[in-house]
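Lecture notes, part 5. Sequence design as translation. It can be helpful to think of inverse folding as translation between two languages: the language of shapes and the language of residues. The source text, in structure tokens, appears below.
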């Protein structure tokens, strides 16, 4: 994927925004950086971005601020203090437009002469006509002369006024043009050095701004360093992702600005030189309005530390970092090496584009771009009296410098940083809209006519196909179907969902469906691929299309085969105004909402959509959408201490108070957070070493099938040496309890049910999409299948044979059995198998799994023989729906294809291209089944005998179950059900589209032959509600009275009690050696499981998304 061109503050690193990496070779020998990058293998996303950053330096790029083509340059050379700056006041005015001034004066003079002439002509004529009147007629020549002289007085006065006006207007016009020349001097702000008639941004003067420096000098010592925690977190991420293996953790534990301020060496205004390119497609009036609402500036900055001695106090005057490197083997041992990093010099240039608005603070969106990597010089000193100053040993100082450069390179033109000044000034960091603009829903139906890949097996079809979804330029698998072994015409019937980021559309990504052949001993082979334009899907949004598309060859060789799939893009829906509320937190009781103590700070809404999100809950008619979960920070994170280090004495406190809090120091946890959605791990942050106040600002966005029944579990763990990472605490969020008054909730939650305590800040946001999934596709992917009974109705000729059979009910991961003794013949000729207790079969990857009911007749000589097989695909079940479902009963010589390829409950094999004749229907089977969503007690054996990740999930379930939170899993809250009934009449009037038009399913009869080219809530359970508390206190006497002398029961009671204590690291697990022994055992089992997995077929599944 191409590198991001624009970044936002507080934007977490993720798959779409990868962490920049500092190559170690460039740290050891920076002169070979370019050569080493050129020799690397192309196609790696992060390496390509490194090359992009390297090419940006000393090359002409497009300035995102002005639109000009500019040349970036690193600030390697420090400014010469002797260089004289340019001052616009020393420049001459540009010549006024004297020709226009002359035309103006001549025009005024001509008009006044005309008017004076007219006045001198008309006034005597008026006097003459007046003299002819009988009452005014003069009686003598003297009187006539006096009358004539009097008639000249008005025009004379008028002429003097005109002369004054001519003088005033000429003088005013002269002054206006003179001051306009001064204004033009300011507008131009430079010299036309290339004589092209215009002054470009590079030709403008750089002026000193000492008034700004005086302002910075006063503000610098009082700036709160906590404002820059997010930038320090970003620096930690880059350093953590770039360190060698023997450094397993990096932490910036302290930061200060010092007392010596940074200086603004020059500042200049910039014109909008390329607005036509920036505002392409906008009409002239709108373009003029937008251009008039922006201010562009270029600011050059520099810092140099004051000469200082060797004392700590003198070095504290400069900006500084306290970094801690943890050396050793991860999980085994580590050594903390604190390093004092003093910033001795910085020099660089940035350009700023500020959007002006009429409301305070009058500045909204601000774009900032660097005109090259700033020059940074550091002094690195280990915090030890026995080690020398390492600033002359370039390895460590180069690494820190390169990490800073890697962070700064994300904002070098043409890249930029976007700041929302309204949001920053208000202090609001809450996300009110998802980054994803919509979602792609892909139904993968089947593939036909595939090429035989394995030549070793000539007797039968030899290919083990599976399908992955990825973006064409990225290449990383985002979804994978199950592997169907030995089949050239596989029928998958699986659904995939991919959120679409705007950047994905901007860089022209295509959706790629890749068909692979799985191999056990070698790399998988690509059998072909299909690419679909995402832009075309967005143009035809909310309309799925079912298509047949021929496979394209990855190696330009002819590859047979076609793939059938349904693809559609679904956009986000605006909040339903009919559900608008006051936006109060549902955790506040109704009678206390008006209490001033519960007055909550309102989030800043920048537009009507954000306002609606904060005051409108999701509409239950549209249950599917995009869920955003973000972990901001934890405050007061500590590990529980039971008792004191030394034995207590009479009169002393049993435990120390938790009043003395410390943010850093020995014994604090190294925490990281994991996000689970519907019992599936989807995201993990990086480790924040040794701190009581970790700042994560990390999160993820995922497609959610049904928000009404979904839950989010945030688990905080402590990374430890020589023991499994314990759970410090967890937060269980039932979304239907959260989204009562709003679609976005940000709140502090207490960490519970772990070995630590603290308060974690979490934001949850849901935006529905215009897609309606069938009820069977709204469920969990993890759950338990409960089989109450099995009724078989075979043909008459098979009744006696099947009545003697035992049943084996199996999924891909687990199985259960029903013996012959549980079968009974019914009056209608059917045969029923039912046990006293229902069979519980744990299921993972439910939407790619099937329940296979095998009828086996026992044979003492040859063993059990399969007489018949019934298959129920779990994607056809609805969560928590208790019903009987009828499937076909098949008989065949080879059941492998029936086990792996999808068959609907009615037994329609029309999707099968071959082997239909080998399947013989001999009856039906009625299965009384229920799918319970989420992890249950039935998963214990499967998860405890599996990988390390599975064991962690089971541990988390065990804690949640002990806290009584499992009852909420997969159930709708009462408030949602009441809202559905209360607001049903409103939906019909508001619904923007009909339900049928948003269905994601396409009828097979509507399939199109693709003619395109293939490439073309509140956690209310506190400790006193814990059932474990009741078991260990309220029922102690009952346990003592119940066969207290039975050694087996006493051992079970002791084991359960120790297990409950072990969850909090009490009892046997209170000792470090006991936890270390468990860690060794689990690592041995995990290694064995990893080795065993090397010999199994596995699809190219996406990894868990991580921060680094």
């Amino acid at each position: 994927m191409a590198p991001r061109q624009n970044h936002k503050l507080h934007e977490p690193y993720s798959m779409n925004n990868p962490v920049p990496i500092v190559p170690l070779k460039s740290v050891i020998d920076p002169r070979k950086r370019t050569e080493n990058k050129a020799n690397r293998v192309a196609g790696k996303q992060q390496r390509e971005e490194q090359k992009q950053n390297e090419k940006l330096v000393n090359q002409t790029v497009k300035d995102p601020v002005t639109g000009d083509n500019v040349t970036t340059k690193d600030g390697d050379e420090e400014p010469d203090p002797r260089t004289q700056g340019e001052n616009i006041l020393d420049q001459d005015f540009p010549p006024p437009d004297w020709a226009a001034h002359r035309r103006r004066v001549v025009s005024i003079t001509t008009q006044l002469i005309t008017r004076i002439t007219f006045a001198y002509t008309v006034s005597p004529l008026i006097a003459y006509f007046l003299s002819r009147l009988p009452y005014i007629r003069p009686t003598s020549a003297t009187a006539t002369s006096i009358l004539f002289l009097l008639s000249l007085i008005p025009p004379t006065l008028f002429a003097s006024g005109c002369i004054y006006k001519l003088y005033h207007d000429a003088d005013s016009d002269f002054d206006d043009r003179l001051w306009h020349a001064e204004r033009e001097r300011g507008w131009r702000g430079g010299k036309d050095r290339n004589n092209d008639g215009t002054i470009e941004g590079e030709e403008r003067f750089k002026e000193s701004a000492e008034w700004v420096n005086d302002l910075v000098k006063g503000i610098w010592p009082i700036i709160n360093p906590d404002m820059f925690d997010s930038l320090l977190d970003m620096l930690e991420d880059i350093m953590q992702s770039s360190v060698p293996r023997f450094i397993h953790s990096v932490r910036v534990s302290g930061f200060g600005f010092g007392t010596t301020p940074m200086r603004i060496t020059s500042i200049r205004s910039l014109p909008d030189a390329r607005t036509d390119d920036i505002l392409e497609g906008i009409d002239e009036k709108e373009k003029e309005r937008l251009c008039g609402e922006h201010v562009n500036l270029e600011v050059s900055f520099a810092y140099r530390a004051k000469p200082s001695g060797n004392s700590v106090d003198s070095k504290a005057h400069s900006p500084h970092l306290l970094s801690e490197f943890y050396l050793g083997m991860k999980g085994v041992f580590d050594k903390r090496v604190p390093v004092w990093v003093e910033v001795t010099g910085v020099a660089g240039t940035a350009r700023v584009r500020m959007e002006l608005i009429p409301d305070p603070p009058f500045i909204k969106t601000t774009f900032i771009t660097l005109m090259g990597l700033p020059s940074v010089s550091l002094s690195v000193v280990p915090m030890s009296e026995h080690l020398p100053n390492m600033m002359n040993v370039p390895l460590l100082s180069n690494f820190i410098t390169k990490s800073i450069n890697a962070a700064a390179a994300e904002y070098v033109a043409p890249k930029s940083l976007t700041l929302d000044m309204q949001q920053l000034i208000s202090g609001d960091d809450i996300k009110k809209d998802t980054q994803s603009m919509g979602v792609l829903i892909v139904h993968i139906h089947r593939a036909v006519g595939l090429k035989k890949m394995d030549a070793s097996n000539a007797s039968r079809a030899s290919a083990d196909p599976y399908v992955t979804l990825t973006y064409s330029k990225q290449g990383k698998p985002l979804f994978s179907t199950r592997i169907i072994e030995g089949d050239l015409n596989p029928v998958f019937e699986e659904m995939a969902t991919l959120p679409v980021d705007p950047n994905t559309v901007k860089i022209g990504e295509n959706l790629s469906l890749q068909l692979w052949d799985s191999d056990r001993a070698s790399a998988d082979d690509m059998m072909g691929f299909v690419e679909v334009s995402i832009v075309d899907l967005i143009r035809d949004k909310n309309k799925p299309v079912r298509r047949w598309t021929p496979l394209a060859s990855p190696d330009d060789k002819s590859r047979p085969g076609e793939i059938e799939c349904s693809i559609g893009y679904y956009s986000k829906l605006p909040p339903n105004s009919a559900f608008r509320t006051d936006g109060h937190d549902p955790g506040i009781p109704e009678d206390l909402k008006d209490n001033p103590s519960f007055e909550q700070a309102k989030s800043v809404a920048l537009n009507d959509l954000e306002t609606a999100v904060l005051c409108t809950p999701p509409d239950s008619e549209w249950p599917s959408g995009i869920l955003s979960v973000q972990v901001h920070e934890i405050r007061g994170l500590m590990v529980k201490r039971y008792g004191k280090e030394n034995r207590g004495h009479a009169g002393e406190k049993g435990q120390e108070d938790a009043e003395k809090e410390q943010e850093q120091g020995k014994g604090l946890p190294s925490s990281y957070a994991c996000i689970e959605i519907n019992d599936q791990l989807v995201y993990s942050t990086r480790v924040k070493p040794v701190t009581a106040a970790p700042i994560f600002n990390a999160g993820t966005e995922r497609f959610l099938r049904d928000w009404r029944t979904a839950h989010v579990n945030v688990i905080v763990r402590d990374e430890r040496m020589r023991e499994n990472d314990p759970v410090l605490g967890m937060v269980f969020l039932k979304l239907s309890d959260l989204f009562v008054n709003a679609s976005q909730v940000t709140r502090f939650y207490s960490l519970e049910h772990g070995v630590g305590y603290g308060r974690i800040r979490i934001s949850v946001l849901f935006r529905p999409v215009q897609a309606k999934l069938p009820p069977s596709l709204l469920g969990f992917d993890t759950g338990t299948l409960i089989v109450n009974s099995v009724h078989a109705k075979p043909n008459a000729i098979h009744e006696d044979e099947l009545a003697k059979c035992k049943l084996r009910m199996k999924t891909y991961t687990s199985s259960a059995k029903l013996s012959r003794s549980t079968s009974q013949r019914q009056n209608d000729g059917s045969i029923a198998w039912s046990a006293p207790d229902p069979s519980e079969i744990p299921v993972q990857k439910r939407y790619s799994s099937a329940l296979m009911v095998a009828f086996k007749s026992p044979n003492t000589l040859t063993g059990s023989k399969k007489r018949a097989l019934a298959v129920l695909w779990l994607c056809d079940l609805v969560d928590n729906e208790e019903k009987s479902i009828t499937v076909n009963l098949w008989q065949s010589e080879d059941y492998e294809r029936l086990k792996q390829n999808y068959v609907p409950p009615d037994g329609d094999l029309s999707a099968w291209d071959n082997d239909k004749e080998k399947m013989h229907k001999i009856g039906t089977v009625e299965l009384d089944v229920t799918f319970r969503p989420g992890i249950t007690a039935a998963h214990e054996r499967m998860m405890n005998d599996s990988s390390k990740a599975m064991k962690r999930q089971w541990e988390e379930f065990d804690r949640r179950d002990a806290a009584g939170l499992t009852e909420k899993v997969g159930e709708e809250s009462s408030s949602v059900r009441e809202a559905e009934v209360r607001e049903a009449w409103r939906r019909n009037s508001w619904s923007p589209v009909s339900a049928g038009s948003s269905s994601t399913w396409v009828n097979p009869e509507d399939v199109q032959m693709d003619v395109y080219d293939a490439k073309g809530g509140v956690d209310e359970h506190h400790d006193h509600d814990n059932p474990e508390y009741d078991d260990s206190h309220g029922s102690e006497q009952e346990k003592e009275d119940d066969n207290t002398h039975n050694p087996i029961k006493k051992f079970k009671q002791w084991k359960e009690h120790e297990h409950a204590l072990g969850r909090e690291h009490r009892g046997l697990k209170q000792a470090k050696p006991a936890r270390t022994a468990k860690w060794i055992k689990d690592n041995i089992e995990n290694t064995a499981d990893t080795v065993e997995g090397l010999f199994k077929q596995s699809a190219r599944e996406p990894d868990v998304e991580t921060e680094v």
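The translated text above is only one of many valid answers, since several sequences can fold into similar shapes. The chain has a mean pLDDT of 77.
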